[in-house]
Every structure is written in C-alpha cells, then in structure tokens.
Fold this protein.
Amino acid sequence: MAEVILENVTKVYPGDIVAVSDITLHVAEKELLVLVGPSGCGKSTTLRMIAGLEDVTRGTVRIGDRVVNDVPPKDRDIAMVFQNYALYPHMTVYKNMAFGLKLRKYPKSDIDARVTQAATLLGIQDLLDRKPKALSGGQRQRVALGRAIVRQPAVFLFDEPLSNLDAKLRVEMRAELSKLHRRLATTMIYVTHDQIEAMTLGDRIAVMNDGVIQQLAQPLDLYDQPANQFVAGFLGTPPMNFISNGRVEEESGTLFFNAGTEKIELPDWARPAMDTVSGREAVFGVRPEDIAIESGPAAVRAKVHVVEPLGDEMIVYLSTDYLDLVCKAPAHQSVAVDDVVDLSFNMDKTHLFDPETGNNLSLAQRGRPPQG
C-alpha cells in the first residue's frame, strides 16, 4: 500500500484546453478516496495521470516515496479497473486473471495461489473455467476486479467500474467494493459521476468541476456543509432548492430573506451575513428533506403540482406565484395534486450563498469553515 500525492497538477490539451487545473491532493495509505463530478470535470483525466496513461503538463505525481511523472504505467505498482471490464474474450476466467502475472513471469504455483485467493474473495471460484461470454455483467466485473487483486498493487484505481451494470446490481457491487476495501486494506482511488456511489463508498470525496477540486471532505460533511453552491446542488437527490434574486433584510430587529412576495424569517446565524450581502442579492438554499408540509415558522404557502410515491417516502413538487420547490414527505402523508399547503423549513439546515462567488456564507457564520 502507498499514499498518493498530487502537487499542483495541471493537464492542458492541444488548443490550450485545460482539463485539470492546479490540483493538489493527498490520498492517505489505506484510504478510499472518490473523485466525483459531472462529465468533463477532469476526474478521469486526473485518474489517468496517476496511472501514467496521460502525461502531466505541470506539477508532480507521487506514489509512495517516488515521483512517477516519467515512470511507465507498468512500473507504478498500480492496478486499474475500467468501465468496460477489458476482458480477453478467448480466455477463461482463470487465464484472464492470471495473464498479467504470466507476463511478469511469476511461478505457476504463485499464480495459482493468487488466482484462487482472489476468486474465493470475490465468490467466483466456480467460474474459473468459463469464458466472459458465459458470464453476467456482475460476474464480468468481479473477474476484472480479480485481475487487479492478483497483482497485489500498492494502489487500486477505479474508473467508473459500475456504470454498465443495472441499478440492482450496482447497489450489490457497491457493497462488495466496500467490503473488498476493508479486507484488502489498500489505497484506492475511485472515479464516478454518480453521487450515490461517491457518498456510500468514499472515506473522503473530492467534488470536481471545470478541472478544479471544489471541496474535499468526508461524505456527510460535504452534504451538510457544502463549501459553495455547486457542491450543494450536485450532492443530493432531488438536489437542494435554491431561491435566487432575494435579499437579506432586517425589520424591527428580525432578519428575513426577502424573495419578493415571499419573506422567510432567518435565524441568528444569518446575522453576520448582513455585512456581506446586505443591500444586494443572495441565494437561499434548503434541501427537500428539510421542508415539511405543515404550518410553522418561516411558512410559505404553495400549490402541489406533482406527487411521486417512492415507497417509504414521496417527492412533492410545489410552487408559489414566483417559486418552484421540491420537498420529501412521509409516504402516507395526505397530499394530493392541486392541494394548497403550508411549508415550514428546518432553518438550522438552510444556507445562504453569495451569488457572485457561489461561496456558502452560512459556514463561517456558524463557525464551521469549509473543509478542503
């Protein structure tokens, strides 16, 4: 196992296209770190630079105590698992898993032992004589994992390995990967665009956008304390509600977020924000689960347009004359399309964002600086 350190790493493609911009990142030994973000954010490019499949334009990549910028991929002591499995169709499962070891001229006894151990770990010991065409998608992915495991590398790199699986199998494989990480106790870097994968797998998550790490923190810290509006909107299903074009104002000693026809009373944590956004626009954010359909402080009246039952809960889409909102409600709450209801917000979980920088003003006001 080894730590992975990126220092001021930049990747520029021909035509001055900046894919990754000045990233500094420290992945600790035995950590499972997830790089997550939308398509084109630079996460796969970052992974490929660590693997040696992309050259680094500027900066330094270290694996363990070695600078590996000019080290070929095969000599970096890493193993990579791809989205498309990349199995040899004419080889059996055993031969697919053993192939890399044979190239490195390992003794047959060592190869047998490693393949058997990895196959048993992954529950595919009964598939060793089959070829890939006779396997399901989940079994193929396990073979790809096994081929990486037998290498016993210092670092595992995963590039969206579950994206070709159906929803049920993805849930199962996420759990398998978590167990695998605990058993192997090896450094892992995992790339995905799926926020659920990121939240459930990562010891820490680096949220990327436009080639830049927007925030690096533990999963729940990212969710509860997003550093900026991008992170707040990217994590969460449905995403956070944002009310723009409002202002923080004070009337008779009480703070409000004035969104035109709607006035939302703000708690005391918002008072220092007056110095930042008083007299100009701000953005108010609240997650769907922090909106309740009931009368209460900061109540807003809204009309129900869509109700989506999900079994244990339902997603409710509502609007006022000027605002569109989404909330989560208990599955059996009495709510129907065209109802006019009162909404109350859990104000301890709301946020204020600077519309110019996108920064979350709530963190500093609550004494919780964003992690990075």
User: Anything to note?
Assistant: The first helix runs from residue 43 to 51. The CA atoms of residues 43 and 229 lie 19 Å apart. The chain has a mean pLDDT of 90.
